[in-house]
Amino acid sequence: MDEHDLPRVLQQLWGFEGRSRPGPKPAFHISDIARAAIKLADAGGLPAVSMSKVAAELGFTTMSLYRYVDAKDDLYVVMLEHAFGEPPVLDPRSDWRARITTWAEAFRAGLREHPWILQIPVYEPPLSPNQLAWLESALHAFDGTPLTAQDRLSAMLLVNIYVRGTAQLTANMRTEPDAIQEGGRLYTERLTMLATPERFPGIAATLEQPPNEGYAGDFDAGEFAFGLNTVLDGIESRITRLTP
């Protein structure tokens, strides 16, 4: 297989196509399409993105887009490539746990900035430059551990799934501090009324506990940190078992 066997959208993202392509000079770059599509998605969610709307945002006809992307799925590839950008720089002096935490927090930040990413169907592993760079970065986070190459990939997928899952759970929730505080207060009051100790003793017991001081008013961040640390505890347990 050579570069010409790749889908056209990947040829463009990797810089293979366009160096000697016949025909008129392109009117815009694939990155222009990405920016226009991301702008629409950030404003109205993924349903706001269509070939015609992206073309209109660029000031061109819909047919002109087909010189760059063959279908909407290709448009999604371009959007993901530019929405995430390059992965975070991981400090080689830090231990594996600090490095993968930095990676996970950056991944979470990208999903929070562009929540429509969670609406894009995942049919196959990534092949675009930045997406592979994120994968490579996560694998290197485990440098210095006894994890095998497959172990590192599996650990990365576990962290990836956790981050995506928590982001999906909170994607449609209001995240402003005042809204969280008010919503949490109202929910607690209603839950206290409905979840009586006689019927729901487990839930009632949690309501009797004092607030977790570690959350410092940011319940979302506190829950994310708790879950991530629990996931990493599991990976650390495997590392410990493999360490001579």
Overview of this structure, please?
The structure is a single chain. This protein has helices at 8-13, 30-44, 51-58, 62-65, 72-84, 96-113, 129-140, 149-170, 177-194, 201-207, 219-242. Helix 2 (30-44) crosses helix 3, helix 2 (30-44) crosses helix 5 (72-84) and helix 6 packs parallel to helix 8. The protein is built from 11 helices and no strands. The longest helix is centred in the last third of the chain and has 24 residues, at 219-242. It folds into 3 domains: 3-83, Arc Repressor Mutant, subunit A (Orthogonal Bundle), CATH 1.10.10; 86-172 and 213-242, Orthogonal Bundle (Tetracycline Repressor, domain 2); 177-207, no CATH class. Helix content is 60%, strand content 0%. The model is unreliable at 213-217 (pLDDT under 50). By secondary structure, the chain is mainly α.
Descriptive labels:
single chain; 244 residues; mainly alpha; Arc Repressor Mutant, subunit A; Tetracycline Repressor, domain 2; 11 helices; 60% helix; flat
Q: If you consult CATH, what is the topology of the largest domain?
A: Tetracycline Repressor, domain 2
CATH superfamily of the largest domain: Tetracycline Repressor, domain 2
Distance between the termini: 41 Å
**Shape, please?**
flat
Topology of helices and strands:
Layout lengths: L7 H6 L16 H15 L6 H8 L3 H4 L6 H13 L11 H18 L15 H12 L8 H22 L6 H18 L6 H7 L11 H24 L2
Helix pairs in contact: 2-3, 2-5, 6-8, 7-8, 8-11
What is this entry, summarized?
The protein has 244 residues and is mainly alpha-helical.
